Amino acid sequence: MATEFKQIYQPICHQNIIELIDVSFAYQQKPVVEHINFGIQERDFVGLIGSNGAGKTTLLRMIVGLIKPDSGTIKLFGQPIGEFREWNRIGYVPQKNAFNPLFPATVREVVLSGLYGRGKLFRRITKADQLKCEEALHAMNIEDLSGKRIGQLSGGQQQRAFLARALINNPALLILDEPTVGIDVETQQGFFHLIKHMHQHHNITFLMVSHDMDMIRSYIGEEPKSECGKLKFFVKHSHDLEDCVETNLTHGLTGLRQLTAEEKVGVAGWKS
Ligand SMILES: Nc1ncnc2c1ncn2[C@@H]1O[C@H](COP(=O)(O)OP(=O)(O)OP(=O)(O)O)[C@@H](O)[C@H]1O
């Protein structure tokens, strides 16, 4: 009976979120990513580790469709990336240095920009959009910063704003590129508690580049699941299969701040 149960429900919990099949990319004939084969399933937390220049950012940029692989196939939520249109299911927080601190946008504008589809930079902001923005600001505990210029914020506050931007569509997949670079240790710990909570309770799948091996080891474990060239993929699945079926873990953004506050998760650190 137990076996039948697993067979019936396996596809629900272990839906393929990202499939990389023999993916390669070169910048001006210089190979950067070579023959990557890897799959990420629903509720995995994947830590992508590799030395400087190993191609981590390049791989993430291919996955979010910013650059095209020279060869191989990328599938998102089971669809080849060329046919994939549901970009609002993916939240992406690029590396901090990808952001120009002089950009004159407010926190609210940055968070709202997470709603704009590709190529739709200017669209009318509806009341529903405003509400989503308020929820994301609230979840990250930065409502009081909403009118400030993003460049005036501390590193930790900026990361919260960019996380709110990535969360505004309630994504199923969050892709984070070295999210804690340049942030103090206490604030980093608050951030990791928060994303662990999101992984365990909010049914979000994570792909995160990090140089913080302590964090990776403490949450995901010592051994990579897979190694492709210089890239190592560490994986932790959030629940056993049975739990995935029996537990309703999907709750909205609104509950996130309350839950993290109840668990005393890093709110103080984030405010600095
Ligand atoms: N736009 C570009 N044009 C040419 N070469 C590039 C470009 N972007 C990255 N590279 C090169 O590709 C290689 C991989 O870069 P990438 O940023 O993907 O590495 P990374 O693993 O993310 O590194 P880091 O840990 O330092 O962030 C590096 O040698 C880099 O110099």
Separation of termini?
53 Å
- The CATH architecture assignment turns out to be 3-Layer(aba) Sandwich
Structural class: alpha/beta
Which hetero compounds are present in the coordinates?
adenosine-5'-triphosphate
Secondary-structure element series: HEEEHEEEHHHEHEHEEHHH
Protein name: Metal ABC transporter ATP-binding protein
GO molecular function, one term: ATP binding
Pfam families: ABC_tran
Family: Belongs to the ABC transporter superfamily.
Please explain how this structure is put together.
36% of the residues lie in helices and 23% in strands. The protein is α/β, with parallel strands linked by helices and 272 residues long. It has one domain (16-271): Rossmann fold. The structure holds adenosine-5'-triphosphate (ATP). Adenosine-5'-triphosphate is lined by residues 27, 32, 50, 52-58. The site of adenosine-5'-triphosphate has 10 residues, from helix 2. Residues 18-253 form the ABC transporter domain. This is Metal ABC transporter ATP-binding protein. Keywords: ATP-binding, Nucleotide-binding, Transport.
List descriptors:
single chain; 272 residues; alpha/beta; Rossmann fold; six-stranded mixed β-sheet; four-stranded antiparallel β-sheet; 10 strands; disordered C terminus; binds adenosine-5'-triphosphate; Metal ABC transporter ATP-binding protein; Metal_Ion_Import_ABC; nucleotide-binding; P-loop_NTPase
Write the layout of secondary structure elements.
Elements (H helix, E strand, L loop, with lengths): L1 H12 L2 E12 L2 E12 L2 E6 L6 H8 L7 E6 L2 E2 L9 E4 L13 H7 L13 H13 L15 H13 L5 E5 L7 H17 L3 E5 L3 H8 L5 E3 L2 E7 L3 H6 L7 H9 L4 H5 L1
Parallel strand pairs: 3-8, 6-7, 7-8
Antiparallel strand pairs: 1-2, 1-4, 3-10, 4-5, 9-10
The structure holds adenosine-5'-triphosphate.
Adenosine-5'-triphosphate (ATP) binds next to helix 2.
Organism: Paenibacillus mendelii
GO molecular function: ATP binding
Protein name: Metal ABC transporter ATP-binding protein
